[in-house]
Amino acid sequence: MPGTDGEWASDAELLRRHVAGDSDAFGELFRRHRDRLWAVALRTVCDPEEAADALQDAMVSAFRRAADFRGDSAVTTWLHRIVVNASLDRLRRRAVRPAMSAGDEQAFEALLVHDPDPARTADTRLDVDAALRILPPAQRAALVVVDMLGFSVADAAAILGTSPGTVKSRCARARARLLPYVEHLRGNRSASESVSPAQGGDV
Amino acid sequence: MSHPDSEVLAEFRAGLITGRRGARISAHLATCEHCAGLCDSLAEVSVLLAAAPAAVMPDLVAQRLDGVLAAEVAHRHDSERAGGHSSQGREAGSRASRTGPGRQPGRHRNFRLVALRVLAPAAAAVLLAAGGYGLTRIGAAGPSSSAAAGSAASAPPEVPSPASASHAVALPAIEAPANLQVVISGTDYRRATLAQQLQHELQLSARKAAGTVQPAPASVKACELMVTSGISPGTLLLLETAHFQGQPAIVIVAVSGHQRVAWVVGSACSAAGEDLLAMTSLPGTSAA
After folding, report:
1. Cβ contacts of residue A180 below 8 Å, gap of 6+?
2. Mutate to test the interface with B, among A59, A64, A144, A168 (most CBs of B within 10 A)
3. Do A169 and B191 touch (CB under 8 A)?
4. What CATH code is assigned to A11-94?
C-alpha cells in the first residue's frame, strides 16, 4: 500500500498524513474500515442504493473535515459517527420506506415472503435485515452499533451523539420490539446452519 | 406483582431500572418462569444480531467510492498546485458528491476559470488530444486499451506536455477544439451495472463499434470542459451521449491520475454546472 513504507500505520497516523497532504493516506484509512462502515450505513438506511449514497456523503465529508478531528475519540469512532449521521440525514431527507411502521407485523410477514431462500448462507442476515426495518431509525442505529458491531455503550454514545443512558434505552426498546420475531430469527439461523444445496430458489 | 411488559424487562436488563422498582422486578423474575423466559429471549435477540453474517461492501459500491475519492484527491492536488486556497479546493471537490450540501456552483465556476487561466495552454492541448488524438489512441490501443489506461501510473498516458504541445497555444484558449468527437449510442446505463457497461463500451469504442461518431455540439463541448477541468492534464477516453436510468445523459471517461474516472451527467450539463448523475472509477483491466 503506498505511503506506508511497508510499515503498518495507525489510523491516527494515516489521518495526520492525509491532513499533511499525503494523497494515499485517506484511501488506505477508509479501505481499512469500509466493510464495517458499509454495514452501519446499510443496516441503518435498509437500502443498498441509499446506503451507498450515505457512505459517499460520509466519505467526502470525512475527507474534507479531517483537519477538524481533535483526537477526543478513536478515529474509527469518528468515522462511524460521520457515517451514522449521513445515514440518518438521508432517512430524514428522503423518508426511505415510510410505509414500514414500527411493529407492523403484516409488513414483516410480507418481507419474509419475499426473502425465504433457505439455501443461502446469508439467510440469517436477510431476516435480521428485515427485522431491523420495523424499528424506528434512531433505535435501529443504536442496536446496529451496539449489538451488531459490538461497540461499548460509551463509544456508541459518541458515535450516535447522545448520552449512554439514551443508547441503553434505545437498545432496550429495540430488543423488546424484536422479541416477537426471535423464534423466527432463531429458526432461520438453525436452518442456515443445516442447509441443503438442493433447497431454495433464486430470489 | 403483575407481569412487567417486555420493554420494562429490556430496560431492567440494560440496568436502567434500579432501586425499589428494580428489586421488585428482580424478585418477580425469581419466581415467574414466563418472565424469566422473556429475559432469556431478550438476551437471545442480541446474540442473534451479533451472529448475523457481516455485510461486505459490494464491488460496485467500492469502485464508485474509489472513483469519488480519486476525484477528491485530484481536486485537492490541483487546487494546491494552482496556488488555490483550501476553500477553493473544498468547493471544487463538492462536484464529487451528487447531493453535497456544501455545493456552490458559482464558486465552483470561479475555480474553473482560475484553473483555466493558469493552465490554459495545457487545457487546450488536452482537449486537442481529446478531439483529434484521444479517440484514435483508443483505436490504436485495440482490445488492450483498458489495461493500457490502467497502467497510467507506471507509464503516463501520451498526453502532450505543455512544452511539447506549444503549437496548441495558437488555439483559442477557452474554446474546445472544433473536432471534439462524440459517440451517439443507444446504451442505457444503469447505476448497478455502470462499471461493467462502461468497460464494454470502451471496448466497443476501441473497435469503433460503439455507435455513430460525430463532431460534438457546442453544449456537449462546454459540458466536457466543465467536467474534466479538474483533472488536467488528463486524457479523454470516451465522450458519449447515451441514457442513464432511462434519462438522456452524457458519459465522459478520462484518465485521472492513476486511474480512469467516469462521469455520467444529465442533459442540463453546461459550462454553468455539470449536473452529475453518477460517477465511478474503472479498474485497470478489462475484467468486470
Report:
1. A105
2. A64
3. no
4. 1.10.1740.10
> Which residues on adjacent β-strands are paired with residue B279?
B263
Q: Provide the domain limits for residue B278.
A: 59-282
Shortest distance, CA A169 to any CA of chain B (angstroms): 6
pLDDT digits (tens, 9 = 90+) for B137-161: 333 333 333 333 333 333 333 333 3
Q: What is the pTM of this model?
A: 0.55
Q: Using alpha carbons only, what angle is made at residue A162 by residues A157 and A164, rounded to the nearest 5 degrees?
A: 50
Give the separation between CA B10 and CA A153, rounded to whole angstroms. 15
Inter-chain residue contact A26 with B61, CB threshold 8 Å: no
Q: Hey, are the CB atoms on A185 and B11 less than 8 Å from each other?
A: no
Alpha-carbon distance of B123 to B129, in angstroms, equals 10
A147 touches chain B (CB under 8 A): yes
Using CB atoms and an 8 Å cut-off, which of residues 59-88 of chain A contact chain B?
A: 59-60, 63-64
In sequence order, which ranges of B52-160 are alpha helices (DSSP H)?
59-81, 86-93, 105-128, 135-141, 145-150
Q: What is the mean pLDDT of chain B?
A: 67
Q: How many domains does chain B have?
A: 2
Residue B194 and residue B275 in one domain:
yes
| A41-86 confidence digits (pLDDT tens) | 999 998 899 999 999 999 999 999 999 998 888 999 999 999 999 9
The ipTM value here is: 0.77
Distance CA A43, CA B55 (A): 9
